[in-house]
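Sharing a chain and its predicted structure for anyone who wants a worked example. Both blocks are below, sequence first, C-alpha cells second.
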Amino acid sequence: MADIEAIKTDLIRRMDGALEALKREFSGLRAGRASPALLEPVKVEAYGSLMPLNQVATVAVPEARMLTVQVWDRSMVNATVAAIRDCGLGLNPQPDGQIIRVPLPVLTEERRIELVKAANKYAEAARIAVRGVRRDGMEQIKGLQKKSEISEDEERDWADQVQKLTDGYIKRVDDSFADKEKDIRQV
C-alpha cells in the first residue's frame, strides 16, 4: 500500500507543477497593465546562445503602461531590442543608452482576442500535461496489479481516485483560464 500512496503523492506533485507552469504562463499575458512577467518568455541571443532576458537585464515598471529594461552589457542592447520586438507580444522597444523603454500599447479588441487564444493554448497545454500524469499513474497502478501487489478491485478503486484527482485539476485549469479570459476581455 505504501507504493500506492507514493504514486498518489507523486501524481499530486506533478499535477501541481502543471498548474504552477500555467500560472507562470498566464502572468506573462498582460491585460493592459505593465508587469515584469510580461517579458519572461523573451530569449536574447547572447554570447552564442539563447538566454532568458532576466539573465542579461533588469526589468522594471516605472509607470502603469511602461516597462524599462536595464541591459547590463552595452553590447547586448541591440540583441535585447530585437528579442523584445520579435517575441510576438506586439511590443515596440525604444533603446536609450543601456535602458530600453517598452511602452505598452492600449489593447484593441483584436489584440484581446489574440491574448485569449494564447491563454487558451496555455490552458490546453496544462490539460494535456495533467492527462499525461494521469496516464502515468494508471500505468503504475496496472503494473502493481500485474505484479499481484494489489487486487483488481483495489486497482479499480485507485484508478477511480486518480480519475477524480485528474478531474479536479482539469477543473482548476479551466477555472484559471476563465479568470484570465475575464481579465483580458475587461476594458
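Comments welcome. The radius of gyration is 22 Å.
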